[in-house]
# Entry
Amino acid sequence: MTDPWGISGPDFVVLYIALLGAVLLVRVVVSAVFAGRALRADRTPPGPPPTVYQLAFLAGGPDRAVDAAIAALVERGQLRVNSTKQLSKTGTRPAEPLERAVFDVAKLKTTSAIRGRVRGSAAMRALEDSLDQRGLLVSAALILRARTFGLVLQLAVLAVGVARLVNGISLGRPVGILVFLVLVAAVLAIVAAVRRSKTGARKPTAAGHRVLGQARTATSGPVPAGALAGGVLLGGAAAAVALGGWAMYPDEELSAALTPPATSFGGGSSGGGSSCSSGSSCSSSSSCSGGSSCGSSCGGGGCGG
# Structure
């Protein structure tokens, strides 16, 4: 009896297992190479100093940028925190795009809810694009190219397995082991397709890390609030939250009220140690410490065909 494709069933099973392993290895290597190229990207075209929201995105992703915008609006009295840790509008609509996106959805919403609404907004996409154009974020195109290459390889291996399986079934050969291997290949292809469809959190490039490091170094020195150091405007609640998260907000009670639960979507979440008691509040006319205005805020058997 002639072996299909000139390869016996047991030999094809061994070859197919080796092929699955080789494709996985190639995918890992290609992803590492592309990721390394993306992270090493060091093109920093001349331009204005990074904004506080660009720094926030580099430090903690979209959620940190939203947090910084909330901090700025609360500090200026355009948002108010109530005793249930919900934010509401109290001032005029801001002009800055990200602040405006936050302000527009802040209708008795928690920090977590506002993050979820603003994360995919046009203002956030514009902020991300501005960092991409300056070479401060890992290139989404490079990541997509690497994952597309891995998906194509995985689909090719799956197609070979399916073709052999159909051929073996038509010839009445035992194909139990091959069925299992084809299912494995199908699962790996699905995982590769899902991974390709999700870019995930984009990391800073070498240039992005350098800009972020310069900002943190500048803020650690004795620089007056609002002064320029290292090309970055320093001072204020927004800058503190942008670089250090809610734990660095100048008002401890508001920090606790604005910090989302630890289980919230990652990327921009930050610590804020203490929880607030239900009884503590600020009057609607008073101003909380740190300069932030608040309302009533709380502190088998077969071969391969």
